[in-house]
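Q: I'm writing a short explainer about Acetylornithine aminotransferase for a general audience and would like to include a description of its predicted shape. Could you first generate the structure from this sequence?
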Amino acid sequence: MQVTRATFDEVMVPNYNPAAIVPVKGLGSRVWDQEGNEYIDFAGGIAVNVLGHCHPDLVKTLKEQGEKLWHLSNVFTNEPALRLAQKLTHATFADKAYFANSGAEANEAALKLARRFALEHYGEEKNQIIAFNQGFHGRTFFTVTVGGQAAYSDGFGPKPGAVEHVDYNNLDALKEIISDKTCAVIMEPLQGEGGVISPMQEFVEGVRALCTEHNALLIFDEVQSGVGRTGQLYAYMGLNVVPDILTTAKSLGGGFPIGAMLTTTEIAASLKVGTHGSTYGGNPLACAVAEKVLDIVNTPAILQDVLRKEQLFRDGLNKINQKYNVFSEIRGQGLLIGCALNEQYKGKARDFLVASAANNMMCLVAGANVVRFAPSLVIPDEDIAEGLARFERAIEHVVNS
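A: Of course. Here's the predicted structure. Afterward I'll give you a sentence or two in plain language.
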């Protein structure tokens, strides 16, 4: 059966507006469409394809596990899930892991746990959740309400209550509304969808101190910043701040759907038998692939090379910007990079994305004013150079149009 981009409009719900091309094959940091055209991938499936497309070790692991065991109900546990939980807890502050299928589900679990923990230890009045404007925590109704972009949660009826927002990097604003009624503060230690915004050190340390003072749990949403993206296994490791709960997904599965919530033994105790669950969470296929991803990424060689590759991107982008003067700032950490457009090109991020695709380079946006890159952590240097050359041609097109 022949399918094309037009088929999407015929049979798919119109909540997406995908590009005109239909990718059919990927290898490393390159992708091919139905017409055989080749693209450099700087998007990484939105920070998901942490080891590129069809990494041979992941393909091998998936095939091997696929011939053993795919799925069990949660009446049983399984070896890949147990090994992955061991490795995640050994590598982080956490003692316990809960597996889901996505970042939204991991955040849903984290927020439910925070409410449950507060109820059990402090009473039902302690239920306020504080999040940050422009934050993004998923698309379930609870997580999209907690996310700080009202456009994603408006229009679906009454929203979950006791959720409030303040500006990111504004500690005074947080001080004004946090209280002993606050059960949790949730934040990205590097805002992704909100524009690739890094936290100021005094801000993130202040958030931790305020949470401790008011017996509120600090939840770090590391769905986008985790699994080597910043050059640390998790971004908190470079901030000298330890959260109470951490969520991880995207890169964790290298392209296979999986999410995880990590926390301490004391806090985890509030999710007693029957209080939360997931049909597919912790399935052997996903956990086997994620275990292999973690084995590969959590090594000094990979993590240190992320920072070297970051510099290649920064040097190349600064050189391009000296020529065309379109960016006010190149920001982000590791291989989560945001090219913030200056006043002259404000609101035109999508123009650069479309022009990039026309020049056989795949990138992302983070709002209307930021072009975002989230490539594979093992992208070859020559693909970085070629991708930037294609990006420069895209910029030239936008500037001259």
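A: For your explainer, you could say: The first strand starts at residue 23 and ends at 27.
Q: Perfect, that's easy to follow.
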